[in-house]
């Protein structure tokens, strides 16, 4: 289902899918802990052979950057509305949402 959304879904569907990926406990909020768990998993999949070599605290730095950008009301969690609004304003994110549009 996720692959179908990434390949054929609307931008809104893709953003909802991405939000739900990070919202591990499905409570409607992304916490720093949830985001850190996902970031660590991504870095673990990339392995220790990346160039340049990633520092131990790189996942935590990415989480802090994410929250500075996305947590608009600074309450320590990111809602679906904050996530979608921030993503729609980010050219790089919007460009990445279109990467797979013509694959199939």
Q: Can you put this structure into words, describing what you see?
A:
By secondary structure, the chain is mainly alpha-helical. The protein has helices at 2-8, 11-22, 32-46, 58-70, 80-89, 91-97, and strands at 29-31, 77-79. Strands 1-2 form a two-stranded antiparallel sheet. The protein is globular, with a radius of gyration of 14 Å. GO terms for molecular function: calcium ion binding; potassium channel activity; potassium channel regulator activity. It is a peripheral membrane protein.
Present the secondary structure layout:
Blueprint: H1 2-8, H2 11-22, E1 29-31, H3 32-46, H4 58-70, E2 77-79, H5 80-89, H6 91-97
Antiparallel strand pairs: 1-2
Helix pairs in contact: 2-5, 3-4
Family: Belongs to the recoverin family.
Subcellular location: Cell membrane; Cytoplasm; Peroxisome
Domain EF-hand: 10-45, 58-93
Structural features:
104 residues, two-stranded antiparallel sheet, 6 helices, 6% strand, ion channel, peroxisome
């Amino acid at each position: 289902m996720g692959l179908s959304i990434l390949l054929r879904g609307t931008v809104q569907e893709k953003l909802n899918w991405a939000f739900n990926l990070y919202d591990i406990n499905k409570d409607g909020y992304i916490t720093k802990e949830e985001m850190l768990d996902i970031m660590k998993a991504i870095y673990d999949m990339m392995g220790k052979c990346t160039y340049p070599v990633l520092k131990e605290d790189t996942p935590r730095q990415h989480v802090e950057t994410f929250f500075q950008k996305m947590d608009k009301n600074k309450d320590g969690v990111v809602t679906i509305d904050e996530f979608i609004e921030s993503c729609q304003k980010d050219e790089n994110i919007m460009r990445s949402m279109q990467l797979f549009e013509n694959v199939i």
